[in-house]
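Dear Dr. H.,

I hope your travels went smoothly. While you were away I took the liberty of generating a structure for the chain from your last submission, since the lab meeting agenda had it listed for discussion. I wanted you to have the full record in hand beforehand rather than looking at slides cold. The sequence, exactly as received, is reproduced here:
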Amino acid sequence: MTDEHAYAEPFGPIYGRPEPGPCPECSCCTRGLCEIGKLNLLGCLGRTATTDPALRDAIAECPCDRVPGSARSVLADRLEGVTDPNERSRIVTELADTYMRNQGRGLMIEITDNEGRPVGVNGPHSSEGTRAIAAGIDRAVRMLNYATMPGNGGLVYPSTVYSVYGELVDALGKLPQALNQMADWIGEQVDAGAIRENPDYGKHGGNVQAAHATLVEATAAACAKADELAKVLGRARSAVGGLEAVED
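The corresponding predicted structure, in token form, is as follows:
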């Protein structure tokens, strides 16, 4: 059982070895193969090039690529009850595209609106979907808190901490765009006379222009704080960049 056949990109092998060592959850794969197998609709078997029939049969039954949140698990949930061949094909294609774009970024967190419809980057978008995305951020942070708790098994290598910092820095870099776009939309609605501030519970006595001015100021401050936090987390990421586990 070696790592030499574990691939980590959707269209072929990368020429770097995954983290070594046998998987603690199964007897058929390495730790690295199982980690990337969870991101593949074909599971671990879809990320190995071994031609050994016995080994391929064992890997095909690996339980790790069926855990909740894995690609195979999400696909099974999405296909349950769907009988139309065209719709099944569309679901498979959509998920395959999503996992290819997110390859190497960990298990996918699927966001759905209040009717259970998946919300994708390219839409279709709706008010319900937009709220679901924001709620998904909150849920993701809660999950991260649990994953990083001592004894929960979410942290095994320093490289995991390095990657988490990197993902958070990337997210903070994107957040100001959404904040500014929301403030801009409110401004457009104010200018068009399409919205007002309710004088009974608004904070500005019914003055919609004052409410928008406060929003613009708060948005600018929030964007500056996000940029500041991203820089601080970038330094934290650099601090652990040279750390590695000590092999037994």
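Two observations you may find useful: The longest helix spans residues 158-191. Residues 1-20 have pLDDT under 50 and may be disordered.

With kind regards,
E. W.
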